[in-house]
């Protein structure tokens, strides 16, 4: 997938080639290698932070067998973009996450980042983010999926996400009647 | 394509995270109708509690009642389409005899309705957003226990409060009083019947009883009553012990100054004080030693924020501003200046005009709030939960 590389990012990549210690190399299930800022990886992924701290990072490419190259490219892209973006006040304080705090709305660049993804790529990325313990990326991708349900009827949601309706006709009718206020006049 | 989507949505933790991010309770309910598994998660009390915290109640609009017309609902302008649809499906007409509102919260309202056949009026509970649920007449509670002293005045208020179990409860607050003494009884409505309730001891008041417009608030386990010019009477609902809270310096209720209370997150309450074209917002809370403290949280020059709606006569005639309702945590306020009812969002200072009344406005005008919040979802999703 073509990704716009900002100037800062290109510089970052070059620097990385010169001195390896600022980055980690990740290997996708299909054997492709990706470089990611060590600082960003450790900050954004609890799993990668654990691997870095525990010394289980392989210089020749740490195997991430559960993640395909397309999803891993997006993960790495997200980490690098995150490292380059100026975090807003909201994100700085996100290290302390209160259960009661409202969700932090995706930043403009995060919104753009998930908006350009195909359906498949988005769900692949959710899986990867979940596997790598990337709370913020999971937040942003789940937010995108919930947005896809906005204004849709149960039928439309089932269609978009290919979900089987296992309600009986009577059960569904009961829900519609009891919860009429939530349904559109369709 | 189907494989990865079903893997992701098949993961309970991820599905729950997605459900929690839906903007409105209506979206959550429609999601629950997708499949029985989605319903199981959407109706899980733990998820609903989190959902409720993440999506605070939304203000839909207010009720306005004046001598010109019966009680009517005025939606807040520029609602998101999801809420506009909910309002469109609601039924807000309570008939020509609809008059005073006791309380309105979480989509429920208690209105005094005079039947057109000349029968005596009745306090009636409506759920305007759920027209299918019908109405319930609320009888006045019987008072069995009486205070020993003879008290001349008697009044009963009906108030909504968070019942703790996810739904809203109705309580009746009966006050008997003389000039410097008061006796208060609180009873809860359970399955349509008033419970026995609890009474205070005879309360000796530090000043003369003076009932203000926005009289009572039931919040965080306490009943607060603005019933003296410079004091609020606070009663602990569980123990019925009472204290009188002195208002901050310069704050009092009177002819040209008035007050409104609202509940504050966690404990305590918020107070709006309007005098002429100045509004102060205070927060009262208890510190770790259980000592109450007032904190000034906002000062607003109403002439400035109302710029667009301001009238030249306001200053010259010394317009009196009435505060009709204060939102929880003082998020917003409804005010009336002369014949205009205005809504003010505190953080953005955004103002909306709710109503222009005819020239003669009797002071009985009241605005009450309709909110839609998660509790519809809680109550109904619980009811439908297949896990029972």
UniProtKB/TrEMBL annotation, chain A:
InterPro entries reported in the protein's UniProt record: SKP1, SKP1-like, SKP1-like_dim_sf, SKP1/BTB/POZ_sf, Skp1_comp_dimer, Skp1_comp_POZ
GO biological process, one term: protein ubiquitination
Pathway where it operates: Protein modification; protein ubiquitination
Signal sequence annotation: none
Domain SKP1 component dimerisation, chain residue ranges per copy: 136-182
PANTHER family referenced in this protein's UniProt entry, alphabetically: SKP1
Oligomer status and interactors: Part of a SCF (SKP1-cullin-F-box) protein ligase complex.
Protein name per UniProt: SKP1-like protein
TrEMBL record, chain B:
Entry-linked InterPro entries: AT5G49610-like_b-prop, F-box-like_dom_sf, F-box_dom
Ranges where the F-box domain occurs: 12-51
Domain of life where this protein originates: Eukaryota
Classification via Gene3D superfamilies: 1.20.1280.50
Residue ranges constituting the F-box protein AT5G49610-like beta-propeller domain according to the UniProt record: 101-357
Protein name: F-box domain-containing protein
Organism: Digitaria exilis
């Amino acid at each position: 997938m073509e990704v716009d590389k900002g100037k800062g990012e290109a510089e970052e990549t070059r620097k990385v080639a010169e001195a390896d210690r600022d980055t980690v190399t990740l290997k996708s299930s299909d054997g492709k290698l990706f470089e990611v800022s060590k600082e960003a990886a450790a900050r954004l992924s609890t799993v990668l932070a654990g691997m870095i701290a525990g010394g289980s990072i392989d210089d020749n490419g740490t195997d991430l067998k559960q993640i395909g190259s397309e999803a891993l490219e997006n993960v790495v892209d997200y980490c690098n973009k995150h490292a380059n973006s100026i975090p807003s006040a909201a994100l700085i304080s996100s290290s302390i996450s209160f259960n009661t705090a409202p969700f932090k709305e995706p930043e403009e660049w995060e919104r753009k980042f998930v908006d350009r993804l195909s359906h498949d790529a988005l769900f692949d990325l959710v899986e990867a983010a979940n596997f790598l313990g990337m709370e913020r990326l999971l937040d942003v991708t789940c937010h995108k999926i919930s947005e896809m349900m906005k204004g849709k009827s149960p039928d439309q949601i089932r269609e978009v996400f290919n979900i089987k309706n296992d309600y009986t006709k009577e059960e569904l009718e009961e829900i519609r009647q009891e919860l009429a206020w939530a349904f559109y006049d369709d | 394509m189907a494989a990865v989507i079903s893997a992701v949505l098949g993961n309970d933790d991820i599905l729950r995270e997605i459900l929690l991010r839906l903007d409105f309770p209506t979206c959550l309910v429609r999601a629950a109708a997708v499949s029985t598994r989605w319903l199981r998660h959407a109706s899980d009390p733990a998820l609903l509690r989190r959902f409720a915290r993440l999506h605070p109640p939304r203000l839909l609009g207010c009720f306005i009642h004046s001598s010109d017309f019966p009680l009517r609902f005025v939606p807040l302008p520029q609602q998101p389409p999801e809420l506009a649809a909910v309002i469109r499906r609601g039924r807000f007409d309570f008939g020509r005899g609809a008059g005073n509102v006791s309380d309105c919260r979480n989509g429920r309202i208690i209105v005094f309705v005079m039947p057109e056949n000349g029968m005596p009026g009745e306090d009636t509970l409506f759920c305007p957003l759920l027209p299918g649920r019908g109405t319930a007449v609320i009888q006045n509670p019987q008072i069995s226990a009486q205070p020993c002293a003879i008290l001349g005045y008697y009044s009963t208020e009906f108030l909504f409060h968070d019942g703790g179990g996810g739904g809203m409860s109705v309580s009746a607050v009966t006050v008997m009083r003389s000039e410097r003494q008061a006796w208060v009884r609180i009873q809860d409505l359970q399955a349509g019947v008033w419970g026995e309730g609890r009474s205070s001891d005879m309360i000796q008041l530090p000043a003369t009883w003076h009932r203000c417009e926005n009289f009572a608030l039931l919040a965080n386990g306490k009943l607060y009553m603005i019933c003296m010019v410079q004091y609020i009477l606070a009663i602990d609902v569980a123990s019925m012990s009472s204290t009188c809270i002195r208002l901050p310096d310069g704050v009092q209720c009177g002819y040209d100054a008035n007050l409104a209370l609202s509940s504050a997150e966690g404990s305590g309450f918020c107070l709006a004080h309007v005098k002429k074209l100045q509004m102060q917002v205070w927060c009262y809370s208890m510190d770790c030693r259980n000592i109450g403290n007032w904190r000034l949280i906002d000062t607003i020059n109403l002439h400035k924020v109302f710029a667009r709606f301001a009238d030249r006569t306001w200053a010259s005639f010394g317009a009196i501003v009435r505060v009709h309702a204060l939102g929880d945590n003082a998020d917003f306020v409804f005010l009336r200046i002369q014949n205009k009812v205005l809504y003010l969002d505190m953080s953005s200072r955004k103002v909306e005009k709710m109503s222009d009344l005819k020239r003669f406005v009797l002071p009985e005008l009241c605005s009450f709030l309709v909110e839609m919040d998660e509790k519809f979802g809680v109550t109904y999703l619980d009811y439908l939960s297949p896990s029972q």
